[in-house]
Amino acid sequence: MAIERTLSIIKPDAVGKNVIGDIIRRFEENGLSVIGTRMTHLSAAEAGRFYAVHEGRPFYNDLCAFMSSGPILAMVLEGKNAVKLNRQLMGATNPKEAEAGSIRADHADSIEANAVHGSDSLDNAAIEIAFFFADLDLHSRR
Ligand code: IDP
Ligand code: MG
Q1: Residue of the CA atom closest to atom 6 of ligand 1
Q2: 142: part of which helix (H) or strand (E)?
Q3: Ligand 1 site: residues with CB under 6 angstroms?
Q4: Which atom number of ligand 1 is nearest to the Cα of residue 114?
Q5: Distance between CA atoms of 9 and 27, rounded to whole angstroms?
Q6: pLDDT along the chain (142 residues), means of 10
Q7: Does the annotation mark 117 as catalytic?
Q8: Cα–Cα distance, 36 to 104 (Å, whole number)
Q9: Catalytic residue among 54, 107, 117, 139
Q10: pTM as predicted
């Protein structure tokens, strides 16, 4: 299995619940290393640029408002199969469908306020990592 990098975001709802540590613990216990972190508070326009792929969807404006409602923690995870492994640890988008023990099953409130973001492919991971981080901000553990 290839060593990959993926972007994770702890969303405003989960930062507000003070569960940053619990979420990062799950990544580390499952073999992923945090190689860069950035806490920031996006404007609605910045959130809109990050989620541009969803522009035109009925939930897009609400999603931009939610993602700019408070601070987030963006981070880069590195490890074997990181893209897929992170998605497994996150659980399904809708917490009602999220696997027991997943981050969203334990911390998400709704299909919108669902605690975490994770890149859905290696190509998108590279684009999303570059949105938040410069190469010099990342510190590989390989
Ligand atoms: P993902 O985060 O599991 O990859 P996406 O389909 O890429 O899910 O959607 C991005 C984000 O948009 C979701 O995490 C969630 O916050 C929000 N979202 C997705 N579908 C809906 C919906 O039907 N209603 C409200 N918000 C949604
Ligand atoms: Mg997605």
Answers
A1: 93
A2: none
A3: 54, 59, 63, 93, 111-112, 114, 117, 120
A4: 16
A5: 12
A6: 96 99 99 98 98 98 98 99 98 98 98 98 98 98 90
A7: yes
A8: 22
A9: 117
A10: 0.98
